[in-house]
Amino acid sequence: MSVLTARTPASRPQDWLIRQLPAGMLSEDFFIRFVSLFQAEADTLLEHADAIENLADVQVAPATMVRYMSQWIGTPGIDAALPDAELRALVRATARAVRVRGTLTGLRIMVEAFTGAEATIEESGGVFRLGRAPLDQGWVRIKVPNAGNLRPTSLIDLVRDEIPAHLHVELWIADERVWATPGGENAGGVDLDGGTDAPVGQSAVPQRISIRDGAAQQPLAPEPSVRTEDES
Length: 232
Description:
Blueprint: H1 23-26, H2 29-51, H3 63-72, H4 84-98, H5 104-115, E1 120-123, E2 139-144, H6 152-162, E3 168-173, E4 176-180, E5 185-186, E6 190-191
């Protein structure tokens, strides 16, 4: 049984089109130069066909193709000025993380890939016997020594996208807590910023809860307070 192998430029004769001319034309310089024009154009098409199996390989695909592939797996916005090596590393990391998204492993891959720093992650997850699971809501605390090339707000957005919606979260950069979700006494007994969902030091707009589906809706403008005569 024969095995078909892809033809490559190394295995293709440089004069592959010219040598197909009739023997009488090969002795004429005009015909050789004329056909060479078409061969040069056809070589570009064949090179694309030869390399098509590598277009989805992050290691060797052109940078424009790598950016395009990043959209397939939902890679967060990538700066156009990012060096080629870092671009490829981020896409590879996202491809690994997307298979375990919503887990500790997936979160660690994304945070470390985009910050370039080792992350320390504590969380309340585990396997418990029936009736012995903790009564508090799940929580996760993420600590990184720095945000790398990211602004703190960009890192917050990244974490927000990777964390399951029901968890209470703390995000620390070095010794500063830059973000905490609502929750009160959570995260191992630590007050997560007193119930705000904004970077520490900024006021948060209250969220409305839909009775129909129990999901948090978009933040609304705070309602004006009304004072009664007894309060005045």
